[in-house]
Amino acid sequence: MREIPFSLEEHPCFSSPKVGLAVLGHPIAHSISPVLHKAALEVLSTKEPSFSHWTYERLDVHPKELRRALDQLSDAGFIGLNLTIPHKVEVLDFLEHLDDEASIMGAVNTLALHGNKWTGYNTDGYGLKMALEKELSCDLVDAKIFILGAGGAARAAATQTLLSGANLVHIHNRTAKNLNNLTTLLHQEFDSERIIGSTSQTLNDADFCGKDWIVINATSLGLKLGEPSPLSIPCKQFGKQSVFYDMIYNPPRTKFLCEAEASGFRNANGLSMLVYQAKRALEIWSNREISAETMFEAAKSHFGD
After folding, report:
1. Is 88 designated active site?
2. Residue of 38, 47, 64, 88 marked active site
3. How high is the mean pLDDT of the chain?
4. I need a surface site. Which of 106, 109, 131, 155 has the fewest CB within 10 A?
């Protein structure tokens, strides 16, 4: 993986049979997406040599350059893009076509070039669903979901769990504005009885004591070492079958997960979600089945685990 991400002024160009894929963000140096995709493409190329001409890069794209980037990269031979912060919502203004899940989630993390037009997809929801099922043996049907945060990651988590049959989704955010915006959007798509919200002032600990919940951290608290857990309720108060999932994967053990571990609960970090969303994105671009295990092995090797 190239150590320094490409800028929009210096990115490579591709002509047939070469194909470009990339992840766009600002900043983007932290992304390990190239590690995952290049490992999977190497496996694909052993069966179909044409995939040896596919490559995946990181591009640092400022929000003001996003529209220009989409036009420029399609002309440069890129056929698939991933989007991360801060582009997942802003890109909606530049797209004519969205798949159903991206439309409901109101965010896009994957673009595929069809003709000369980009189509938007959201594979984050799929990634979360697979991570909960595979890593923590969760059945989302009739489950109770407690989501911490009310940003784009929380919206994807809430939408996916509701689509998957969750009985109740409780969204908790420190302040009311973003919380109300999110619950209002969700009420437009789903039964309002299945969606409730709370702030720091309205959270009732008794709603969780002794009850089994799937607790998901969709905030950024924990990205920096030493940051506190976003969960104000002691983990030990939850039902014994509760599970705890942190969308953050680096650092691998946040305060949120350490507290869950100390209380004896099953828990996992966001690496599995990253892998499964990447797997689904590459399947969209390649129209081939992708091995999640190959991506997991590449990620673990990258982190020295």
Report:
1. yes
2. 88
3. 95
4. 106
